[in-house]
Amino acid sequence: MTVEYKKPLPNPAHWPASQPFWEAAKRHELLMPRCRRCNKLFFYPREVCPTCLQSDIEWQKVSGNGRLHSFTVIHQPVNPNFTEDVPYVYAMVQLDEGPRMISNLVGCAPGNATVDMPVTAVFDDVTSDWTLVKFRPA
Ligand SMILES: [Zn+2]
Q1: 11, 33, 66, 91: least CB-packed within 10 angstroms?
Q2: Element containing residue 6 per DSSP (H, E)
Q3: Could you tell me the distance, in angstroms and rounded to a whole number, from the CA of residue 58 to the centre of ligand 1?
Q4: How remote is the CA of residue 56 from the centroid of ligand 1, in Å?
Q5: pLDDT tens-digit readout, 101-123
């Protein structure tokens, strides 16, 4: 589903190391980089494995399921374009496969968010060019 936002939004940086992540998000899939040498999944995307410092990286589809590791409720956004969205939940999600990622928790009133609650990925088609990975209660 494409939501037409009526406000200017910051665009994700076009960085080659993260391109597979963004392309997968557009297909509503969540991919994580995995090191072929030590087999560790990691996030954020980068050109070198943070565990063994090798650059033999491939991409693996993950479930999108995890738990809310930590969160804060934003009442005063740094970017004024998000003023009408407050309050919203800025979340750190512990994916079942291991990596943690920062995103938004949606479909949940901020007062109902709890640490360790099960969550699953949802895909917000911000424009026809890019999609954001967010999470909702599972
Ligand atoms: Zn490695």
Answers
A1: 11
A2: none
A3: 11
A4: 8
A5: 999 999 999 999 999 999 999 99
The encoded tokens of residue 138 equal 């599972």
Residues in CB range of 3: below 8 A, 6 or more apart: 124, 125, 126
Q: Which pair of structure tokens corresponds to residue 17?
A: 């190391």
Cα distances (Å, whole numbers) of residue 23 to 7, 18, 51, 105, 129: 23, 9, 25, 21, 9
Expressed in angstroms and rounded, the spacing between residue 61 Cα and the centre of ligand 1 is: 17
Q: Where are the alpha helices (DSSP H) in 6-103?
A: 19-26
Measure CA of the first residue to CA of the last residue in the chain; give whole Å. 19
pLDDT score for 3: 59
* Alpha carbon of 84 to ligand 1 centroid (Å): 42
Ligand 1 centre to CA of 55 (Å) is: 8
